[in-house]
Design brief:
Elements: E1 6-8, E2 11-14, H1 21-28, H2 31-36, H3 46-62, E3 66-72, E4 78-88, E5 93-100, H4 109-123, E6 128-133, H5 138-146, E7 150-160, E8 166-175, E9 194-196, E10 200-204, H6 210-217, H7 220-223, H8 234-242, H9 244-249, E11 253-260, E12 266-276, E13 281-288, H10 297-310, E14 317-323, H11 327-335, E15 339-344, E16 359-364
Parallel strand pairs: 5-6, 13-14
Antiparallel strand pairs: 1-2, 2-3, 3-4, 4-5, 6-8, 7-8, 9-10, 10-11, 11-12, 12-13, 14-16, 15-16
């Protein structure tokens, strides 16, 4: 049984009280909280807050869970909420959840509350805690990492939106025996949020990049080099941009917007796909809009990317594949210092009118000589 009050430094977790109602209503009626907590009433009114305090939270406790108000330890004012639900005693398992009021975000409150809840739950005898997080909620995933939770996989269609549609949820898990401190990051954040040589800049792909990226990936010559040679829809590209930070945080891929450093406009994209963590190997890919080609931007981007991959990421090998007919991309590989290893026969899915195409295989090791400087 978890205690009614948990002291956690600058914050305190305690039972809800009637005088929390105003702060509770204001915090829960925030668009971000309503989007990622679709079981909350919308709009969230003072009546809803009072009902939660008098009926909802006590029902959670009676069911074997926990429902805490997160308050500022100095003022005792409510700044969020957190608790445990879906408790399965036979498995020593529960689901952990939290939310923070808009004015109290970016102060480490969710991380402190999650760490305190996890410690308390494990002391009470639980062995496994889950955080189920929407892929488009990277802020919550950063809290999970900071609190020592590790990405475990995808719960397909586990979430339900207000309109009745379903969406996947990412499972982040912490076990009682996990080491203390934050969970390891296979793909660290970029130093200063970007890589640049003052000609090309790479930064993480973001939702505002969707329209330019769609223009790039709907071009026939770019479609022809996709793993499945089918043009994406606008929704596909918007989704890719929306979950790019999540893919980075879970260690699956680092998806970059490739910018012309002089203008700050998107000139293309590149990505590192961490396909073999066990062997320290990853794949890279890149593409440019027509107006950005022929200026050496792709070569510069690949060099920036490889420096980060062999430096902060600590990879042992990078590889890439180019179409046999894509002479421009092969020149990029050569100028970036990659070695041509051979031909992967019939590697990619077949086009509607052709067989399975071959792919030229390229690789780069951190011990390979640096290529000549670019002019």
């Amino acid at each position: 049984m978890t205690p009614q009050t948990i002291e956690a430094g600058r914050i305190r977790l305690r039972a809800y009280r009637p005088d929390d109602a105003d702060d509770l209503a204001a915090g829960c009626d925030d668009p971000v909280n309503l989007r990622f907590n679709p079981t909350m009433p919308r709009p969230y009114t003072l009546t809803d807050a009072r009902r939660w305090i008098t009926e909802g939270a006590p029902a959670v406790w009676r069911a074997g869970g926990a429902a805490y108000a997160i308050v500022d330890a100095a003022t005792d004012r409510l700044v969020g909420g957190g608790g445990l639900s879906q408790v399965v005693p036979a498995r020593g398992q529960a689901e952990l959840g939290y939310w923070v009021s808009p004015g109290s975000r970016r102060r480490g409150i969710a991380t402190a509350a999650t760490r305190a809840l996890a410690r308390t739950a494990f002391r009470a005898g639980l062995n496994r805690l889950e955080l189920l997080i929407h892929a488009e909620n990277p802020a919550s995933q950063r809290v999970a990492l900071a609190a020592g939770f590790q990405p475990e996989g995808v719960r397909r269609a586990a979430g339900r939106d207000r309109d009745g549609s379903r969406h996947d949820l990412l499972a982040w898990v912490r076990l009682a025996g996990d080491p203390p401190g934050p969970a390891p990051r296979p793909l660290p954040d970029l130093p200063g949020a970007r890589l640049t040589d003052d000609v090309v800049t790479l930064r993480r792909l973001a939702p505002p990049d969707a329209e330019a990226l769609y223009r790039l990936h709907s071009r026939p010559e770019v479609v022809a080099t996709r793993v499945r040679p089918v043009a994406p829809t606008r929704a596909d590209v918007a989704r890719r941009c929306a979950v790019a930070e999540s893919e980075w945080l879970t260690g699956r891929a680092a998806d970059f917007a490739l910018l012309d450093a002089a203008t700050g406009t998107l000139a293309g994209g590149c990505a590192l796909i961490y396909d073999e963590p066990a062997t320290g190997q990853a794949m890279i890919g890149y593409s440019l809009l027509p107006e950005a080609r022929g200026r050496g931007l792709a070569t510069r981007a690949v060099r920036l990317l490889t420096g980060w991959a062999f430096g902060p990421v600590g990879l042992a090998r990078l590889w890439a594949g180019t179409a046999t007919w894509n002479v421009g991309s092969q020149r990029v590989m050569e100028r970036a210092g990659f070695h041509r290893e051979g031909l992967m026969r019939a590697r990619l899915p077949a086009h509607e009118t052709t067989g399975r195409p071959d792919t030229v295989l390229w690789s780069l090791l951190p011990t390979d000589p640096l290529p000549p400087p670019l002019s």
